[in-house]
């Protein structure tokens, strides 16, 4: 069975790259005891300090994103060049506008950092959702139907995988005159769905041969029913693992694109844009660059730790 | 045991690769390699890769311009004050501003020994203007009689010669213009009017890679994206003879990298210090720091077709102008690289004048009042379009905040990812309300800053400002019999512009460059270019 | 094996054409015209722009332009740049070696340090060094390369003045050290974690228990049995990563002023030199396709359970 061995290679490669050595067999035992997997995972998560810390951070970031006024009353746009140009941080003034100092426009860096959370979170979550839906749909279709459909969809996946991500994003985003948040999300998802598609396809290929799927088919269940009721729930674990880990990556990617000047644009407050602005002051006022950089890193780190914890919980082999 | 062997092989490969890099790291002495290529007596400057092959009439950007100026000499040039200095020409005279007589200096030669004659000029100009040759600056010849024959709007050219150019003898030729242009001799200072040797016509493509000119320097080599090297030419007879042995134009991707090399002594001159180093460059370079104004201006140009500014009362624009705190912005955000504007023309050009107005003063109260009187801004919001690849973001944001704070009119930047997109939006009348405009003098007369930008038919009038009164006043200047009169007439135009507000002048440019300890006599001309031939090596 | 390779090579053709086509179309629909951009802000002659566009074929429909481009490509002709009139192959020849040097440097750094750290941690799971490594790698992964790049530049160049902030000579390995570290750090973190996880997993494997039971010396158990099996996923990852490193260089090359592919492509993009962008991108796609083929073959070589028919 030449086709199958090759499948195995591809699956393991994708998961290996993304979720580090989640072995090819991941899906099979998970599928066998689906219900207990989730409750076991939850049991596991609750006692994982990484999960607890990252959850607290993520909740904090979410509050920051949707209710920034709880953190600061200062506006991220208000600039007073004459008074505040590059005024250094006042570390003891907790939660005051001058806590982190002022940037080259005389704007409160603290206010900008707080207001910048929304863009990062929205893009991260938005891209992850879109990528998961798109990737799962393509991957499941390819894996379930096999044959010509599989060959075609797999080649299309290859094509998108072949395009260098940064280059593709650069070119696509340059096309749009107004780069609102949803444009950035769509462009990033357009290029990023391939990994999930491969993982989903791999999982489905393994699951569709399992006894209960064969049984369901023998009993005359419709294709849709088999896909949604039997295959999807069991393929979900590896997909969720890859998606949660990727979320942090998307936040970093958004910051990078904004940094290059082709992601989000003013007046949307974005950490990436602020880092790009701050690089001009790197020699005489490094905090203008360092503070938003640290925010990006903390956010990415929170989601990564979260993803890590989820993976550990869902991957029975590591238990 | 196939697998095991392979694993060993992989490990072996890694070791080999590591060893290779280690060797590479060891044998390359750092100081050595970065200094390699420096020549005694040569001056090095951070002039990057020219966009196009080196043909005078096909070069309109600053990098190529530097190299062309070193290799070619036109009829005349300008001194620091913007006055004419004859270089290859003995004289350029006219009686009626319509027919101009050019007398060349005797005994001039190209670098290959061919004499520079009147024919060298006429043939070159005809070639430049010919539409078949796709020369970017061809339109500079459009004043000359017969331009339409060699450069028709459509179709093939009817002739390959402009009838307005006539060779009288080896050192004399005449130029006949379609209309009076009292300042035509000033245009001749542009590099586009350089002569070409006969070898050019054999293979223009090869020539563009290895040009032969009549300038103070002779071409040596061009390593793409790294270095262009020229050496002083012994046979040069002009007043701008090289004071050094040669020039190395070195390519740097960022001004920061170039600056670092100036500080460490690997590069002699940097044209413009990057924003990162601006706050400290005077301290770092000491006497080597350059800080001088030059003839260029930055403006905000309203798009008079846009929803925001269609049929706008000039009072609104005057109000917006008074809402911009030019002093603070130039001192902080712009690090003193600009000087607040007080008119529509920079001080270095002939005819610049003190305008009797307060529209350049920061006065929030009056700004608000004027905007209200003028009927306000539709939607109470304006956009300023700019390109993000040119370092404009910072000041656009600052100007916007200044306007917002002073008047309550919301103002946001409208960034285009690069210059190409920015230009396309301007060409296609897609600017939302304003764009950032910039203009560097082509020749040091106020006309260059007024006619090319605000005449209703001017190519660069992308705001589509159109005013019959202004057009008429300009026509008066164009028909003037002498340069002085023309300049005066255009001064009247400028006074009138205050009431019309075709743009909001922001500030004039300054050059903030510097040089290392190895060189001296680094000066700047009115266009902000370093006069390389004057630089001496210690 | 031969048939498998042949099939994979055949599959590459549509993928290659598809990727280049997508990039070509993206460039095609971009606003902004290369000829117009040449003219700059000063006055220009619009009829000249039209004429030059016509001469270059830019006024033709996309399928004509794409066909024309492909036809040239199959004859080994990448085309010429609109502005500089230089051969694009010449531009590629100047930029690629720089990036390859940087990539190999980063790759070696990633492989050696990453695997080394992973082994140290993996041999003693849950020890202090293991926890330390996990934390370090998490931090590395969570720093986008522009953040890490500027931080290192600030500390090593501006504060400590140990290196120049930007690369002065892209042939000097000393100069390339900082950019290579920044470029490789993300992969390094992945490699270290992958090695570590894979080793921990294999430590519990049956064959390890057998080996220990047989009384084999520890060095042999770790060196032969454990390492060989644990490094399989690491090698696969490293293989696919070469392509990622090359494109990741866009940001790193920008920060450190390395005159490589990333800089070339960014510049070509802003000038709308479509042929240059597509040409360089095609080469990156080819590198990506071949590294993934080699990885799959290597995988079979390392893991005797996998056989390709």
UniProtKB/TrEMBL annotation, chain A:
Positions in coiled-coil regions: none
Record CDD domains: TM_PBP2
Compositionally biased residues, Low complexity: 12-27
Main location per the UniProt record: membrane
ABC transmembrane type-1 domain: residues covered: 117-307
PROSITE patterns with a match to the protein in the record: ABC_TM1
Localization per record: Cell membrane
Residue stretches spanning the membrane: 50-71, 121-147, 159-176, 182-200, 235-265, 285-310
Alphabetically ordered keywords of this record: Cell membrane, Membrane, Transmembrane, Transmembrane helix, Transport
Compositionally biased tracts (Basic and acidic residues): 1-11
Membrane topology: Multi-pass membrane protein
Region annotation Disordered: where it falls in the sequence: 1-27
Family: Belongs to the binding-protein-dependent transport system permease family.
Annotated protein name in UniProt: ABC transporter permease
From TrEMBL, chain C:
Gene3D superfamilies noted in UniProt: MetI-like (1.10.3720.10)
Location of this chain's protein in the cell: Cell membrane
ABC transmembrane type-1 domain location: 96-299
Transmembrane residue ranges: 12-30, 102-121, 133-156, 176-194, 277-302
Keywords: Cell membrane, Membrane, Transmembrane, Transmembrane helix, Transport
CDD domains, A to Z: TM_PBP2
Extent of the signal sequence: none
UniProt topology in membrane: Multi-pass membrane protein
Protein family membership: Belongs to the binding-protein-dependent transport system permease family.
The protein, known as: ABC transporter permease
Organism annotation: Streptomyces thermogriseus
UniProt lineage: Bacteria, Bacillati, Actinomycetota, Actinomycetes, Kitasatosporales
């Amino acid at each position: 069975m030449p086709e199958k061995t090759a499948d195995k290679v591809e699956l393991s490669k994708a998961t290996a790259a993304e979720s580090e050595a989640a072995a090819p067999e991941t899906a099979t035992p998970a599928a066998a005891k689906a219900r207990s997997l989730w409750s076991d995972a939850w049991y596991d998560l609750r006692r994982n300090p990484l999960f607890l810390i990252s959850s607290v951070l993520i909740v904090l970031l979410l509050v920051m994103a949707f209710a920034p006024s709880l953190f600061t009353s200062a506006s991220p746009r208000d600039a007073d060049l004459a008074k505040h140009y590059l005024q250094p941080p006042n570390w003891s003034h907790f939660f005051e506008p001058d806590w982190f100092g002022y940037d080259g426009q005389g704007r409160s860096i603290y206010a900008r950092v707080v207001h910048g959370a929304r863009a990062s979170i929205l893009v991260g979550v938005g891209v992850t959702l879109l990528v998961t839906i798109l990737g799962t749909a393509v991957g499941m279709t390819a894996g379930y139907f096999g044959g010509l459909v599989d060959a075609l969809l797999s080649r299309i996946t290859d094509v998108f995988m072949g395009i260098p991500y940064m280059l593709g994003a650069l070119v696509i985003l340059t096309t749009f005159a107004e780069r609102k948040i949803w444009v950035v999300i769509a462009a990033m998802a357009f290029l990023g769905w391939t990994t999930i598609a491969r993982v989903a396809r791999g999982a489905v290929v393994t699951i569709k041969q399992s006894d209960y799927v064969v049984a369901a088919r023998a009993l005359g269940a419709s294709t849709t029913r088999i896909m949604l009721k039997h295959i999807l729930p069991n393929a979900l674990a590896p997909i969720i693992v890859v998606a949660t880990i990727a979320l942090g990556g998307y936040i970093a990617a958004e910051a990078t694109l904004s940094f290059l000047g082709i992601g989000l644009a003013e007046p949307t407050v974005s950490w990436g844009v602020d880092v790009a602005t701050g690089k001009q002051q790197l020699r005489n006022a490094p905090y203008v660059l360092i503070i938003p950089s640290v925010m990006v890193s903390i956010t990415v780190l929170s989601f990564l730790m979260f993803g890590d914890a989820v993976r550990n919980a869902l991957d029975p082999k590591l238990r | 045991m196939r697998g095991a062997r392979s694993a060993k092989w992989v490990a072996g490969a890694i070791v080999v690769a590591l060893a290779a890099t280690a060797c590479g790291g060891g044998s390359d002495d750092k100081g050595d390699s970065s200094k390699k290529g420096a020549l005694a007596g040569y001056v090095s400057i951070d002039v990057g890769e020219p966009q196009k092959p080196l043909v005078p009439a096909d070069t309109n950007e600053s990098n190529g311009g530097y190299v062309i100026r070193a290799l070619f000499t036109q009829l005349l040039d300008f001194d620091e004050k913007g006055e004419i200095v004859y270089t290859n020409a003995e004289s350029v005279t006219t009686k009626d501003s319509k027919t101009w007589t050019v007398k060349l200096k005797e005994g001039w030669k190209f670098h290959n020994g061919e004499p520079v004659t009147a024919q060298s000029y006429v043939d070159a100009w005809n070639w430049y203007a010919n539409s078949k040759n796709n020369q970017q600056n061809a339109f500079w010849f459009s004043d000359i009689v017969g331009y339409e024959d060699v450069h028709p709007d459509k179709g093939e050219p009817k002739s390959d010669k402009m009838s307005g150019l006539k060779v009288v003898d080896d050192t004399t030729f005449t130029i006949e213009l379609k209309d009076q242009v009292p300042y035509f001799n000033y245009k001749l200072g542009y590099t586009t009017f350089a002569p070409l040797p006969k070898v050019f016509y054999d293979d223009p493509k090869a020539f563009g890679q290895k040009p032969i000119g009549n300038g103070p320097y002779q071409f040596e080599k061009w390593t793409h994206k790294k270095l262009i090297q020229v050496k002083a030419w012994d046979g040069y007879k002009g007043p701008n003879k090289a004071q050094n042995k040669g020039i190395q134009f070195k390519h740097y991707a960022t001004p920061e990298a170039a600056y670092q090399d100036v500080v460490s002594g690997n590069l002699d001159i940097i044209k413009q210090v990057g924003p990162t180093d601006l706050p400290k460059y005077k301290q770092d370079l000491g006497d080597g720091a350059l800080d001088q104004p030059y003839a260029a201006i930055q403006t905000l140009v309203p798009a008079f077709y846009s929803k925001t500014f269609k049929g706008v009362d000039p009072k609104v624009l005057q109000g917006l102008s008074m809402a911009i705190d030019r002093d603070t912005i130039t001192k902080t955000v712009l690090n003193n690289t600009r000087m607040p504007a007080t008119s529509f023309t920079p001080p270095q050009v002939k005819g610049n004048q003190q305008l009797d107005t307060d529209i350049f003063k920061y006065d929030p109260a009056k700004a608000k009042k004027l905007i209200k009187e003028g009927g306000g801004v539709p939607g109470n919001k304006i956009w300023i379009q700019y390109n993000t690849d040119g370092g404009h973001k910072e000041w656009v944001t600052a100007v916007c905040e200044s306007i917002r704070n002073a008047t309550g009119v919301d103002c946001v930047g409208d960034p285009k990812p690069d210059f190409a997109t920015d230009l396309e939006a301007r060409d296609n009348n897609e600017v939302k309300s304003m764009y950032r405009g910039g203009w560097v003098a082509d020749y040091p007369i106020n006309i260059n800053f007024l006619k090319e930008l605000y005449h209703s038919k001017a190519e660069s009038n992308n705001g589509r400002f159109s005013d019959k009164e202004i057009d008429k006043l300009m026509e008066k200047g164009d028909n003037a019999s002498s340069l002085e009169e023309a300049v005066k007439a255009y001064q009247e135009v400028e006074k009138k512009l205050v009431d019309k507000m075709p743009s909001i002048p922001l500030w004039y440019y300054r050059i903030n460059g510097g040089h290392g300890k190895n060189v001296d006599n680094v000066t700047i001309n009115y266009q902000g270019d370093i006069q390389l031939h004057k630089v001496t090596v210690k | 094996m031969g048939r498998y390779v042949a099939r994979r090579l055949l599959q590459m053709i549509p993928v290659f054409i598809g990727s280049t086509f997508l990039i070509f179309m993206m460039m095609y629909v971009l606003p902004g015209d290369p000829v117009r951009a040449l003219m700059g802000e000063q006055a220009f002659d619009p009829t000249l722009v039209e004429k030059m566009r016509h001469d270059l074929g830019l006024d033709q429909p996309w399928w004509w332009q794409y066909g024309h481009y492909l036809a040239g490509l199959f004859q080994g002709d990448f085309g010429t740049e609109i502005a500089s009139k230089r051969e694009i192959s010449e531009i590629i020849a100047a930029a690629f070696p720089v990036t390859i040097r940087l990539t190999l440097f980063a790759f070696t750094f990633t492989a050696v340090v990453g695997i080394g750290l992973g082994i140290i941690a993996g041999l003693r799971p849950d020890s202090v060094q293991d926890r330390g490594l996990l934390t370090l790698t998490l931090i590395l992964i969570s720093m986008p390369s522009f953040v890490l790049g500027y931080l290192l530049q600030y500390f090593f160049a501006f504060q400590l003045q140990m290196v120049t902030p930007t690369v002065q000579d892209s042939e000097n390995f000393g100069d390339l050290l900082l950019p290579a570290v920044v470029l490789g750090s993300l992969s390094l973190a992945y490699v270290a974690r992958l090695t570590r996880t894979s080793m921990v997993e294999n430590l519990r494997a049956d064959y390890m228990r057998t080996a220990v039971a047989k009384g084999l010396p520890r060095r042999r158990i770790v060196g032969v049995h454990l390492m060989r099996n644990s490094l399989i996923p690491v090698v696969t990852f490293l293989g696919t990563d070469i392509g990622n490193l090359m494109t990741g260089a866009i940001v790193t090359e920008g920060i450190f002023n390395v005159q490589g592919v990333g800089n070339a492509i960014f510049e070509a993009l802003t000038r709308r030199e479509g042929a240059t962008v597509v040409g360089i991108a095609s080469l990156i796609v080819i590198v990506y396709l071949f590294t993934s083929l080699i990885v799959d073959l290597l995988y079979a070589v390392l893991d005797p359970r996998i056989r390709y028919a």
